[in-house]
Amino acid sequence: MPVAHSLSCSKTYGAPRRPFEKSWLDQELKLIGEYGLRNKREIWRVEFTLAKIRKAARELLTLDEKDAKRLFEGNVLLCVWSTLEWWMRRR
User: Fold this and answer.
1) Rounded mean pLDDT of 29-56?
2) Cα–Cα distance list, 22 to 28, 36, 41, 44, 45 (Å)
3) N or C of the chain: less Cβ packing under 10 Å?
4) In a 10 Å sphere around its CB, with 0-12 CB exposed, 13-18 middle and 19+ buried, how is residue 46 labelled?
């Protein structure tokens, strides 16, 4: 009997454009050692998440200050950012 999957099919990370550049390799290796990550995909996942947050912030800044979407999503974005900041301080 088939099982229905309700998983999201959206991207969770983006690989670098130049994966074998020496400076990137050294920087990623340093981050893996510093934070105890398992692989480079975990670094890419965090970078992708931060890029999505920055993109959403840029889009909100283009809207009018009194716009309802900017007010609501701006508060949500600040909550997400403060949660991420809390997690970073905890490490």
Assistant:
1) 92
2) 10, 21, 17, 17, 20
3) N
4) middle
What pLDDT, in 10s, does the model give residues 43-68? 999 899 889 999 999 999 999 999 99
Amino acid identity, residue 55? K
Cα–Cα–Cα angle for 23, 26, 44, nearest 5°?
90
- What are the domain boundaries of the chain? 22-90
CB 14 within 8 A of CB 42: no
pTM given for the model: 0.75
Cβ burial of 12 (10 Å; 0-12, 13-18, 19+) is exposed
Q: What is the mean pLDDT of the chain?
A: 88
70, 64 in Cβ contact below 8 A?
yes
